[in-house]
Task: structure prediction
Amino acid sequence: MNFRICVRLSAVLWTCMLLFSAAPASAGDLPEVVEFNRDIRPILSDNCFFCHGPDKNKRQADLRLDTEAGLLGTAGGAGPVIPGQPDDSPLLQRILTSDPETHMPPPATGKVLTDQQIQLLRRWIQQGGRYEGHWAFLPLCGSGGWLRSFASCSGGKN
Result:
């Protein structure tokens, strides 16, 4: 008898997990504060870094989107992201254009950003386009073990 109850309960739990995990995220599910490493870097890595990343042999248009200077520009010129101005940022303009000659990522790649990814980029730029270095190279803050440092750095948030 107990075995049957466990089997039924397991089936119900698995069904619930599948239903809730399969629900698509909507634009309303965007984080209030967009973080570069958590939200933006994965989008750029999956869709842009092949042509605009660290590999100088594959880089096109002499544009790097994997560095702060490449995204935000330097004193010598603006980059494709204009912090606080998503509509004026060439990065977002190229993603949103309907012109196949200038659209990014190029149609030939087969890569297409989702509406949620575009909204994340827009919100990140609107919030100032703050760049974060790769997490593996960021200094630890606080004292104690890694977990203690992580908790003090993130305020206990994941």
In short: The two ends are 41 Å apart (CA to CA). The CA atoms of residues 12 and 51 lie 46 Å apart. The chain has a mean pLDDT of 82. The helical segments are 2-21, 36-47, 49-52, 68-72, 90-96, 115-126, 146-154.
